[in-house]
Design a protein that fits this description.
This is K+/H+ antiporter subunit F. InterPro entries: MrpF/PhaF-like. It holds the Pfam family MrpF_PhaF. Its main location: membrane. By secondary structure, this protein is an all-alpha fold. The chain has one domain: Helix Hairpins, CATH 1.10.287. It is built from three helices and no strands. The longest helix is centred in the first third of the chain and has 28 residues. It is elongated, with a radius of gyration of 16 Å.
């Protein structure tokens, strides 16, 4: 695979991920229920993680991959805490 094809495919992927980020931001703002907003936050951190992975591929450094892993871990914990809060009204029992 040539370098030009790889560069343009990563660029197109970043543009599409940016569009997905805008769509999830719209759902976050105009979501009718709190569950919709939590789901949009969940998908937003996944899209942000994928954007960081594509930035790391384009830049050729590993720091973006480590930050993406950190966002994945913290995003999962945040989603679980928000879901627990919406179901029971408290996070810590």
């Amino acid at each position: 695979m040539s370098a030009a094809i790889l560069f343009w495919s990563i660029t197109v992927a970043q543009v599409m991920l940016g569009a997905a980020m805008l769509v999830t931001l719209c759902r976050l703002i105009i979501g009718p229920r709190a569950q919709d907003r939590v789901l949009s936050l969940d998908s937003m951190y996944v899209v942000a993680m994928l954007l960081l992975v594509t930035f790391g591929m384009k830049a050729g450094t590993t720091i973006y991959f480590e930050v993406a892993l950190l966002i994945g871990l913290l995003g999962f914990v945040g989603t679980v805490a928000l879901a627990k809060f919406l179901m029971r009204g408290e996070v810590i029992e």
